[in-house]
C-alpha cells in the first residue's frame, strides 16, 4: 500500500511542478492616487478557483497521514468549488469521489464535478452538509476529507509557495511592496489562516482584514457579539459565510473583520467587470468591497500604500444567478445604492 501512496503523492507533486503561479493584477484607479490595489487571480488554476490549492493540500495531508488507500472513496462537504478541485485530484490518483452539497449549488460546478468523474449528493441547506458527509462516509466505508476542520492545518503556512508567500514575492518590485492591508473572505477560513500566520511569521506590518457576508457566524463571533453564534439562514454568497464557526477559522490571526451587505458584493462584481473586463464570483465582490472601503479610509486619512485581495473564482460559473438581474432582484436585493457609492472609485 505504501507503494500506491508514494505513487499518488508523486502524481500530485508532479502536477504542482507542471503548474504556473497565478497572476497578481494591478487595478488602475485614477481616483486613488498613491493607493494601489492588487488582485491575486485564483480563478486561473486548472480547476478554476482558490480551492485548487486547498484540495491539493488536503489530498497530500490525508495521503501522508495514511488515511487514503487505492480503494478509498473520498467524501467532502462543499459549496462546490472545493468539490470541483477535489474531484480533479481524486481522478488524478484513481479513487472515487462524492461531493455533499446544498441543492442550490451553481449548476456549472455540479457539471464540472461530474466531468471529473465525481458524484454529487444533495442536502437542503449548508447546515446539513457535515452530518450527511459523516453518515455517507460511514455507509460507503470512505474517508470524509472535512475541509471545514482541516483547511487551516493542511496548508504549509510558513512557505512552500503558499498563497501568502506568492503574494509577497510578486509584490516585491511594487512602489509599496509590503501591503498595508490584505483583504480576504472566509469559507473554511483556511486562506485567511495562512495569510495571518505568514504575516506574523515574517514580521510584516500588514493588517489582515476578513470580510464576511450576511447570514454568517464568523463576524458576530469575531466581534464577540455572541459566543455561541449559530445563524439560521444560509449565506447567499457562494463559498463564503457559514452557519456556525468552523474549526478551521482562526480569529486570533485576524486584525479586523467587516460585514459586507450581499447587495454590495454583487454591486462590486458589476463595478469590477467595468474595470478589468472580466466576470468574477460573488465572494470576489465581497473582497473588492472590503478593499475599496479600506482605500477610502486611507484616502480620508491621507495615507498611501497598497492593498491586496483575491479573485476567488470566475463569474462564468454564475451567469444564471449573480449575473442575472432578475435573479439578483429576487434573491439578493437592490444593488443600485452600492453601485452609486462605487462610482467614487472610477
Ligand atoms: C468561491 C469561494 N470564495 C472564497 C472562499 C473562501 O476560502 P476559504 O475556504 O479559504 O476561507 C471559498 C471557499 O470555499 C470559495 O469557494
Describe it.
- The chain is an alpha/beta fold.
- The protein has two domains: 2-44 and 162-345, Rossmann fold (3-Layer(aba) Sandwich); 52-147, Rossmann fold.
- It has 13 helices and ten strands.
- It has helices at 2-18, 51-64, 81-93, 107-115, 129-139, 147-154, 163-170, 190-202, 218-222, 262-276, 282-300, 325-331, 336-342, and strands at 24-26, 35-41, 74-77, 97-102, 119-123, 143-144, 181-185, 207-212, 256-259, 305-311.
- A six-stranded mixed sheet has the order 1-2-10-7-8-9, sandwiched between helices. A four-stranded parallel sheet has the order 5-4-3-6, sandwiched between helices.
- Strand 7 (181-185), helix 8 (190-202) and strand 8 (207-212) form a beta-alpha-beta unit.
- Helix 2 (51-64) packs across helix 6 and helix 10 packs across helix 11.
- The longest helix is centred in the C-terminal third of the chain and has 19 residues, at 282-300.
- It is globular and about 60 Å long.
- The protein starts with a helix and ends with a helix.
- The relative contact order is 0.14.
- It binds pyridoxal-5'-phosphate (PLP).
- Residues 49-51, 79, 81-82, 151, 185-192, 238-240, 281, 283, 312-313 line the site of pyridoxal-5'-phosphate.
- Pyridoxal-5'-phosphate (PLP) binds at residues 49-51, 79, 81-82, 151, 185-192, 238-240, 281, 283, 312-313.
